[in-house]
Amino acid sequence: MSYSIIFVIVVGLYLINSVKILREYERGVIFRLGRLLDEPKGPGVILVFPPLDRMERISLRVETMDVPPQDVVTRDNVTVKVSAVVFFRVVDPRKAVVEVEHFVHATSQLAQTRLRAILGEAELDELLSEREKLNARLQETLDEQTEPWGIKVQAVEVKHVDLPEQMIRAIARQAEAERERRAKVIHADGELQASSKLTEAAAQLAQQPTSVTLRYLQTLTEIGMEKNTTIVFPLPVDLFEGLKAWSEQQNRD
Description:
The protein is an alpha+beta fold. It is built from eight helices and eight strands; from the N terminus they run αβββββββααααβααα. A three-stranded antiparallel beta sheet has the order 3-2-5. Strands 6-7-8 form a three-stranded antiparallel beta sheet. Helix 3 crosses helix 5. The chain is rod-shaped and about 150 Å long. The protein starts with a helix and ends with a helix.
């Protein structure tokens, strides 16, 4: 009778110990006598019978992995330090356990090597201004290579680009020169527009000679409002033309 009780207690403890609870985002990959079962278990209550069964818990949540700063030589031979972040999740728990050892570490190493390779094919200006295109290219490459592991790379973001000090100064000089160029172009455009307007104004004033006198008087009024001692004697331009004609006539005589 006592042996039966002991047997029941042992069996009960074994069954209690075999009960495992998996959360909603967890799956259990079961190896029974070393062979992988067809489907992962969970979520909820499952039975794992040691030592016949061995279970690996796999989380299906999105994981965030920081890629350490990498020394990258761009296509135009500029050395920069680039750091990034990778967002990925397990979509096939069986492959994540069987096809690769420590899938997180493997994904991290792959992200570092691909980051150096892909960014090394881009120029510095492209690295600074076209990050979205480079991020998409990195994500596509990593996702293609981690697919056999049961990993889905959802996004790759380049976080920081550390430039050398001399390159920062060169970029600052370049930006300053660009601003000066734009200022000169704007000034030249303003002069061109002003010259065209002055030409139109001169044509209109030439049609009414008295309007020139009115313009002289307006200029005198503006000068007088500044309370200065400047005295201006306006001379008509026609007077100089008459003197020129008279001088030419005298020379011919």
